[in-house]
């Protein structure tokens, strides 16, 4: 790799995740693509209880040959009243479509720090360098900001998969307007979006355009020293869910799209403006961006940092990345 060329410089990343089948695909990109320097994986509740997502994260890092810290994070949302049932109907009881038992044993003990502490320690050790990629409920990020607000000025970028902005007919996937990662902890999401750090939001508006069809998934088989076969098997459960619900003949590459944004930024169209999360009433969990440049004063968006929302994607560019990793 040519370290003098910024386009080929490696991107230091912490991955905050709730694996999760599409999380496992995202982790494959982050772990196996040569452009990434994956520093650590932190886990949260979400697709399954945190004990399960942590077990999965440790097994997946071993599967992808990554000897890096894994730290367990939030077991539930900031506010207990937000607690919801997990997503076993989407990701299976084990979070990986029945394939968790096939994961290799972890190569190192669980990091003793809670996830938000590990995030703060790593960011403080390399100020200005690290990108956070968060694809589960955003509780760990909110806890990290509360623990050490100074990290907002030291993180290079925050890329999140979450939210739905009603573009191109894409609504929410939990309610008509709310996406799962936001609905799991709306207060945490609102804190993350209004913090003084640069956030790019990869929502359902683009991730539901990034469909990995069965033929794309089939190409994973026999590759990556067992990793591709396990991913193929795990996606059988996920595909059944989406085929029954949306008839797409494949799966949405939700979380992998967040990782892809760092590799092929030109494939994404972004829109700037502050973003808030609705915290009360029937629209709870809805993400709303004020992109009109008319923020003025006294609105819920006034005084909050302008963040970037993905409004369009060249999905073929995203999906092609899976041919570069195994
Ligand atoms: C998001 O919710 C989870 O089920 C997926 O892993 C993804 O992060 C999609 O709404
Ligand atoms: Ca996820």
From the spread of the alpha carbons, the general shape counts as globular
What is the CATH topology assignment? Answer: Inosine-uridine Nucleoside N-ribohydrolase, Chain A
| Separate helix tally | 12
Note the run of SSEs as H and E: EHEHEHHEHEHHEHEHHEHEEEEH
Q: Which structural category do the helix and sheet elements fall into?
A: alpha/beta
Euclidean distance between termini CA atoms: 18 Å
Q: What does the main sheet amount to?
A: 8 strands, mixed
Mean pLDDT over the full residue set? 95
The number of domains? 1
Bound molecules: beta-D-ribofuranose, calcium ion
CATH class equals Alpha Beta
Order of strands, widest sheet: 3-2-1-4-5-6-12-9
Low-confidence stretches: none
Based on the structure given, which CATH architecture is correct?
Alpha-Beta Complex
Which radius of gyration do the C-alpha atoms yield? 18 Å
Q: In total, how many beta strands?
A: 12
At the fourth CATH level, what is the homologous superfamily? Answer: Ribonucleoside hydrolase-like
Question: Which percent bin holds the helix content?
Answer: 25-40%
